[in-house]
Design goal:
Order of helices and strands: HEEEHEEEEEHEEEEEE
InterPro entries: DUF3108
Signal peptide: 1-21
Strand order of the largest sheet: 8-7-6-5-4-3-2-1-14-13-12-11-10-9
Shape: globular
CATH topology: YmcC-like fold
Radius of gyration: 18 Å
Keywords: Signal
Largest sheet: 14 strands, antiparallel
Number of helices: 3
Mean pLDDT: 83
Structural class: mainly beta
Length: 261
């Protein structure tokens, strides 16, 4: 029922496919906040939020993004979820310095902290639940699942994007390096609670099996404006289907592009 960790992963990758032209202005700033309503079939299963804060890490001013997910209402009766994801990343380069994953999903728990050393291309994985530490090699320009969302929003635009274009991003999650691939499907205007929103439509490739029905089970929409914010995601799961919609927001740096009928 709860696919929260996968949903948060997806939200943090919603804008991963962007063309290779540098942006002149930042896409976000401190104070930006999103809330998403997640439906599993006909059930309003949970909410997820993402918030950008200012913080200091090892004496350095950084962005601190906190992502939370929690089941609500009827869904929480038979499967409780309480997840917390955090990333500390550089305000200029976007490189992640620390990633935190604390989850409780129906009694399945994890408490992991990852410290990145980009000069040595190492990640120190601290599993607090099992009281173990392990140093693992990482790829160049690697991102964690939260920092990737903000890094790509801030560094790439879609001025020359073409249908069928693809991008591959280096990611590190828990103890694993992997390549995340996303394909651009075109532009589409979506009806939302805020009005009609011009969007970019994407197809991320995921691993079929335990969670997703097939490798092309996901479809997502991102606002086609300077904010590049996630608007909607649909997923075909092994059991059932899922839809998540942007439900509330504040602190956007740029005007939210909404069409007037």
């Amino acid at each position: 029922m709860s696919k929260m960790k996968h949903i948060l992963t997806i939200f943090c990758l919603l804008t991963c496919f962007l063309s290779q032209a540098q942006k002149k202005d930042a896409a976000f700033e401190t104070g930006e906040w999103f809330k998403f309503r997640i439906h599993y079939g006909f059930i309003n299963a949970s909410y997820a939020t993402l918030e950008v804060k200012d913080d200091y890490l090892n004496g350095k001013s950084v962005y601190h993004v906190v992502g939370k997910g929690k089941t609500t209402g009827f869904a929480s009766i038979f499967f409780k979820v309480d997840d917390n994801y955090e990333s500390y990343f550089d305000k200029n380069s976007g490189k992640p310095y620390k990633f935190i994953r604390q989850i409780d999903e129906g009694g399945h728990t994890k408490d992991i902290e990852i410290d990145f050393n980009h000069e040595k291309e190492k990640a120190l994985v601290n599993n607090k639940k099992h009281k173990t530490k392990e140093e693992i090699n990482i790829e160049k320009n690697v991102q964690d699942m939260v920092s990737a969302f903000y890094y790509l929003r801030n560094n790439y635009d879609v001025s020359s994007i073409k249908e069928g274009d693809e991008v591959v991003l280096n990611m590190f999650f828990d103890k694993e390096n992997f390549k995340f691939k996303l394909k651009f499907l075109g532009r589409e205007t979506m009806r939302t609670k805020f009005g009609k929103v011009p969007c970019l439509k994407f197809r991320p490739y995921v691993q079929a099996g335990r969670v997703f029905k097939e490798s092309e089970s996901l479809t997502l929409w991102v606002s086609d404006d300077e904010n590049k914010i996630p608007i909607r995601i649909k997923a075909k799961l092994v059991v059932g289907s899922l839809k998540a919609d942007l439900d509330a927001f504040k602190g956007l740096k740029h005007p939210f592009k909404i069409l007037v009928d």
